[in-house]
Amino acid sequence: GGIDSALVAAIASCAIGPENVLGVLMPSPYSSDHSVNDALELARNLGMAIELLPIGDLMKSYDRTLADLFVNTTFGIAEENIQSRIRGNLLMAISNKFGHLLLSTGNKSEMSVGYCTLYGDMNGGLAVISDVQKSQVYSLCRWLNAGGYAGKVPPSPSPNKKIIPVNIISKAPSAELKPGQVDQDSLPDYDILDDILQRSIEYHQSVPEIVAAGHDAAVVKFVVKLVRQSEFKRRQAAPGLKISDRAFGTGWRMPIAKASFY
Hints:
By secondary structure, the chain is mainly α. It contains 11 helices and 4 strands, in the order H-E-H-E-H-H-E-H-E-H-H-H-H-H-H. Helix 1 packs across helix 6, helix 3 packs across helix 4 and helix 8 packs across helix 10. The model has no long low-confidence stretch (mean pLDDT 89).
């Protein structure tokens, strides 16, 4: 139901045919109704198979198991990540059982700043859009809907019916791991974030140079710090497809720990 997953599903359908692609919906109590409906609509548009595996009962099992250890603590990142890791575990089980290749759906913006969960949504054998910034994800989805690719993806069912459901593109991006969550609770707007990331990662610009380009100094330092401290996650990520001059992987060699961030 999210735009990253939608784009990856469309790319996979273009590459190997929708009859060879399986989508898995794993709603939690925090998943919105529109996310499930959007995912079902996308699957119908692409002509791909889909399975529904709700994870609410599994979350309750984890809560019971951890209740004594987590007593007197508040709901936080640990509980949020458990949801992602439940999903990752289910997907790997399907991959093992049927010999499928699990596609990781994280984009370059998320991978850059560590807005992803180890052993959760980072699971996979191929990270399809790990070198595609979030702003590019939106552009690609709009391009697909405008008829930009006429290959194995089926044509739009009607002139007003798009391959990528319009709501997937228009709604605020969210991991949906807690009530009312949106990505911009934790990150700058993606247009700002992506420009800072591109200047830092691909153009090798320093913090002062990025600030001189018009960005707020505190925001730039925050983003650069996130990039540096998230290296340990990227070292454990699935290999990705390279489309930029500087992708994470073989062309990226940074230490996991540094004495200073700037």
